[in-house]
Amino acid sequence: METNQGRVSNRWAIAAAGIVMQLSLGAVYAWSVFRIPLTKTFGWSISQVTLTFTITIFTLGVTAFFGGLWMAKRGPRRVAMVAGVLYGVGVMLASLSANRLEVLYITYGVIAGTGTGLGYIVPVATLLKWFPDKRGLATGMAVTGFGGGALITAPVATILIQSTDVLRTFLILGFVYLIAVVAAGSVMRNPPDGWKPSGWEPTKAQTAQRAPKDFELKEAVKAWQWYGLWALLFLNVTAGIAVLSQAAPMAQEITGVTALVAAGLVGIFAIANGLGRLVWAWLSDLVGRKWVFLIMYLLQAVLFFSLTLTNSFVVFTALGFVILLCYGGGFGTMPAFTADYFGSKRVGPIYGLMLTAWGAASVLGPLLIAYIRETTGTYTNALYIIGGILLAGAVIPVIVRPPKLVTKTAAAGVEPSSAAGGMAR
Known about the structure:
Helix content is 76%, strand content 0%. It is mainly alpha-helical. It folds into 2 domains: 11-190, MFS general substrate transporter like domains (Growth Hormone, Chain: A, Up-down Bundle); 215-402, MFS general substrate transporter like domains (Growth Hormone, Chain: A). Helix 1 (11-25) packs antiparallel against helix 5 (101-130), helix 1 (11-25) crosses helix 6 and helix 10 packs antiparallel against helix 17. The two termini are 37 Å apart. 53% of the residues are buried.
């Protein structure tokens, strides 16, 4: 296992490397840029091409868990570099998918998706250990890059497709991703055991909302709080990705704008997605993770209900922008929330497993809103249902609290002292 005993790196340099990694990995959010070129060039349907993105995100959600387990044994650098190779090579091999849809699914969907999942967890888990004093800000920085990756990739990929073709674009981008992620990953390392910033001690408020110890994975999944956090992430992603998946056609149907105008929402919502990851995570350091999730849930419920009442494109865009701020905010805040409740030592596998919520929601959200639209002929009922789900889900952040430390004395029926790790209040 990689260790750094007696050696302290510049944590801001590691944070910068993590952002570079996530900017490259987050390019998967620019998949819509490839949809039209692939459908026109090879005659594939929109659904067939879109399935590639679904496979990629689902694979990400599953393999992040294994990345977290591997990190716990071998350290972040090795996992990050292998992730870069798989991600870059997977995208490069997608250039061989001419008239072979299954090749596209295997290369971009499974191979690149595996690299994305392994790589995604590395900066998140690593920065939590380097920034115990700013957990929300640290994870916000780590995942902001992922949310904003499409802003860089979308215009670059568009130019490359126009100047060459879509398959050569895969080849070029894959090579760039390979170099960028491997180079940034080589910087990633854990701090020495017991390290903390000079002069820093957790405040009483921080102590009250943090775990009494570092939990092992098997201990964490026995606590109901782990499932509470999983549900919080799952519902938040379901709502946000439902809007992302239908943003352009929904805007056209509700507000009557042209397809070209509606397409501009992709870039606007990408900005919201990235910005929300940093802003909400930073705010969670100030007011607490559970209160941030409560605010995001109640706010989104109101916004989804409000979407049914407008026919203005400007209002629709503003409401959708805030929803996507909250979508990104869930990803920015949840890693710190997990570390608060279960400790930062094993946060890689514990949060990695929790990211299965992302994979599940990436399937449910788009399918739910599409099914209701097809069966009812309108988005109205879907928006009411999602808003209602969020309103009901707001009870979770109200009741969730740090898990108790079960001691031998407690197991024997003796009341443990508060110093032994009773529930923080």
